[in-house]
Specification:
2 domains, about 20% strand, four-stranded antiparallel β-sheet, 12 helices, eight-stranded mixed β-sheet, binds iron/sulfur cluster, 12 strands, single chain, alpha+beta
C-alpha cells in the first residue's frame, strides 16, 4: 500500500467533499454519534471513541424503499439514481460489515447502485470502544485493505493516509502529500496490537461460539434468553450485517408499488407461514436463530467469515440485557 503523511484529516475530507456529498459521524446533541452530512468545512473531524449508534448499512440497504411499480400490465424498475458520496471515518468493523453485505446484496441493483457511487474512507482505531471485540472477529482494529478505498491511521502526534484501491489513488489527485516514514507499517501494527490487548481474550465469545456450533445448548437455555427479548428489533436495526427485509405493496395510481422495509427475525411473525405454522413460534427459537446467523458454521462457510464483526452495538442497545456478550456467556457456561 502507498502510504503518506497527512497533516490533518480535515484537509483530506474537504478535498473529497468538493465533488461529492460527504458523511461523517457527528454528535447528535443527545450524547451519541450518528452519520450526518458535512455542511460546514470548518467543522473539525473528531475521532469517535464509540461507534455511531447506527452503522453505515442504511446508506446502501435503505430502511424503506420502492423496488418496482406494476402499472397497466408492465413492471417498471425503480432503481435509485445514486449521487457520488463519501463515507468518511468508517471503523474497521463497519467496513468488514459492508464487505459482508456486498456479498449478500451482490445482485441487488438498488444496493449496488448506491455502493458503486460511494467512496469508503476507513479509520483505524487507536483505542478499543467499550463493547468491541473486532480483534477476535478478524474485522479490526486496523482497517482491512480490501474493504476500503482510503485508510486514515491516527498515530501519536501524526496521521497516516494509506491508499487501498485504485479509486482511492485517483481521488487524491491535486492533494499535495509527503511519503510516510519508512517504519509506518510497524507503528500501525504496534497500535493494532495494543487495541487487541485492550479488548482482552474475549473468552466468553469463544466458549459461546463453540457451544453454539457443538449444539450443546439446550432449548431451555434458549427459552430462558428468549424470555428477556422484548421483540423491539433494536439489535437487528443496529447490527451492521443484518439484512432481513419484508415486502410491502402499496396501491398507486393505476397500479401497485412494491416496497421493501427492514424486518427483524426477533418479531413473532417473522417466519410465520401462510398455513399459520411458525418455525420461530417461541422467543427462544427466534433468539437462537439470530445467533446462528451470526456465529453458525453454515453461515461462516457461505459468507467466508462470521456474521458478527464484533462492533458491540447489540450489547449497547438491547433493553433485555441479551446483547452478544451476555448471550455468549450464558450459552457457553458449562
Ligand atoms: S434488542 Fe434485545 S430485546 Fe430487542 S429484539 Fe433484540 S434481543 Fe430482543
Ligand atoms: S451481532 Fe452484535 S456485536 Fe455482532 S456485528 Fe451484530 S451488533 Fe455487532
Amino acid at each position: 500500500m502507498q502510504a503518506y503523511e497527512l497533516d490533518s484529516p480535515e484537509r483530506l475530507r474537504n478535498h473529497l467533499a468538493r465533488e461529492r456529498l460527504l458523511y461523517q459521524p457527528q454528535a447528535d446533541g443527545q450524547g451519541a454519534l450518528r452519520w450526518q452530512r458535512l455542511d460546514d468545512p470548518a467543522q473539525p473531524f473528531v475521532v469517535p471513541a464509540e461507534p455511531p449508534v447506527f452503522s453505515a448499512k442504511a446508506f446502501f440497504f435503505a430502511e424503506r424503499e420502492a423496488l418496482f411499480r406494476y402499472e397497466n400490465g408492465r413492471f417498471i424498475a425503480l432503481v435509485p439514481e445514486a449521487r457520488p458520496q463519501v463515507l468518511f471515518g468508517l471503523a474497521a468493523c463497519d467496513l468488514t460489515a459492508v464487505a459482508y453485505q456486498d456479498r449478500f446484496f451482490a445482485v441487488d441493483p438498488h444496493y449496488q447502485a448506491r455502493r458503486a457511487a460511494t467512496l469508503l474512507v476507513g479509520l483505524d482505531c487507536a483505542h478499543s470502544c467499550r463493547h468491541g471485540f473486532c480483534a477476535m472477529m478478524d474485522s479490526g482494529p486496523e482497517v482491512r485493505a480490501q474493504t476500503a478505498d482510503l485508510i486514515l491511521c491516527p498515530l501519536a502526534q501524526r496521521w497516516l493516509l494509506l491508499v487501498a484501491s485504485e479509486r482511492g489513488a485517483e481521488v487524491l489527485a491535486g492533494l499535495a502529500l509527503q511519503p510516510a516514514p519508512a517504519d509506518w507499517a510497524q507503528q500501525r501494527d504496534a497500535q493494532a496490537l495494543q487495541v487487541a490487548v485492550e479488548q482482552g481474550e474475549q473468552e466468553e465469545i469463544a466458549l459461546g461460539c463453540a457451544a453454539l456450533n457443538g449444539e450443546t445448548v439446550d432449548s431451555q437455555a434458549w427459552e430462558a434468553l428468549g424470555l428477556r427479548c422484548l421483540g423491539c428489533s433494536g439489535c437487528t436495526s443496529v447490527c451492521p450485517t443484518c439484512s432481513c427485509f419484508a415486502p410491502l405493496q402499496q396501491p398507486s395510481a393505476g397500479g401497485v408499488v412494491q416496497e421493501r422495509v427492514w424486518d427483524s427475525c426477533l418479531y413473532q411473525g417473522f417466519q410465520q407461514e401462510a398455513s399459520g405454522h411458525n418455525p420461530g413460534a417461541t422467543p427462544g427459537q427466534r433468539v437462537q436463530r439470530f445467533w446462528y446467523h451470526k456465529f453458525g458454521e453454515d453461515f461462516r462457510q457461505r459468507f467466508g467469515r462470521d456474521g458478527c464483526v464484533g462492533c458491540g452495538r447489540c450489547d449497547a442497545v438491547c433493553p433485555g440485557g441479551i446483547g452478544v456478550h451476555q448471550v455468549m456467556k450464558r450459552i457457553g457456561e458449562p
